[in-house]
Amino acid sequence: MTKFWLAAVGLAFLLTSITPEQSFYATAADQTYCNGDLNALMSQCWKYVQSSGGKKVPPSAGCCAAMKPVDVPCACAYITKAIEGYVSMDRVVYAARSCGKALAPGTKCGSYTVPPQ
């Protein structure tokens, strides 16, 4: 599930050409990829995974609900270096694990390797 979340967030950014927040809502609203609702992921989880955030904060129940249906291996396939510039992969893994998503250490999502817990 963590991989999916990473991929879904990455895919949302791939679909955009301006800032992640602005373009996602303009071009990807109501779209589903890797079994996840991109609109829900971005609206519920963005503040927990953005690279410009402060300290790590446990995600909300709404964010965890948005992550639940995501196909993690599918999502990881969409993570690029550009996406990694917007999203903190450490925060993504933290959020996913905080939501009860299993993510094996050593798993690759883009250029990121998931660390041990």
Automatic annotation (TrEMBL):
Keywords: Signal. CDD domains: nsLTP_like. Residues 1-20 form the signal peptide. The keyword Signal applies. Residues 25-109 form the Bifunctional inhibitor/plant lipid transfer protein/seed storage helical domain. This is Bifunctional inhibitor/plant lipid transfer protein/seed storage helical domain-containing protein. It comes from Linum trigynum. The lineage of its organism: Eukaryota, Viridiplantae, Streptophyta, Embryophyta, Tracheophyta.
